[in-house]
């Protein structure tokens, strides 16, 4: 999916647990965070492909770190190169949110899949909520076409109170991802006619 997208988009923002895999692949310590260390080489291949295609990959530059995955766990914002071994990245930091919001402001179209952090538990929903509201504001002013899909994404946009402010929200998570991956969807194929 990501390899396909890097050939089609100008910027690719990666957040949440997936960002940790990319950050670890760059040599950053991610502590006890959700991370697929075995996919580091895949992440490096995707980053190289993106660079070759002229696609900028935006990863967190600052993060919110706690030692426990729990609501209101003691936490602090820190630079990505300062995550302690016992720390768990649970959200993107304010510097990252500002960078993402700036990218939205430059874009004409946004395709959103997935939250930026553990949005299910406060206060680790802050980045997702702030970015969702920034996208919604741009959409409502007519400056952005925003398309979102996937179960967690819909839940995150509802949590932020902006699902109705996006241009289109797909509830078909798996099909949405397959469509973004470039696969032919059976329902769409059945509607196509050939001469």
Query: What is the CATH superfamily label?
Result: Phosphoglycerate kinase, N-terminal domain
Structural class: alpha/beta
Oligomerization status of the protein chains: single chain
* Radius of gyration, CA atoms, in whole angstroms: 17 Å
CATH topology: Rossmann fold
List the helices and strands and how they pair.
Elements: H1 2-6, E1 11-13, H2 16-25, H3 40-53, E2 56-58, E3 62-66, E4 75-79, E5 88-92, H4 94-106, E6 109-112, H5 126-140, E7 145-149, H6 151-160, E8 168-170, H7 173-181, H8 186-191
Helix pairs in contact: 2-3, 4-5, 5-6
Describe this structure in words.
α4 runs parallel beside α5 and α5 crosses α6 (151-160). The chain is globular. A three-stranded antiparallel sheet has the order 4-3-5. Strands 6-7-8 form a three-stranded parallel sheet. The chain has a two-stranded parallel ribbon with strand order 1-2. Helices cover 42% and strands 17% of the residues. The longest helix is centred in the last third of the chain and has 15 residues, at 126-140. It has 195 residues and is of the alpha/beta class. The protein has a single domain, classed as Phosphoglycerate kinase, N-terminal domain (Rossmann fold, 3-Layer(aba) Sandwich), CATH 3.40.50.1260. The mean pLDDT is 93. It contains eight helices and eight strands.
Give a quick summary of the entry.
The chain is 42% helix and 17% strand. The protein is α/β, with parallel strands linked by helices.
Labels describing this entry:
alpha/beta; Rossmann fold; 8 helices; globular; 3-stranded antiparallel beta sheet; single chain; 195 residues; 3-stranded parallel beta sheet
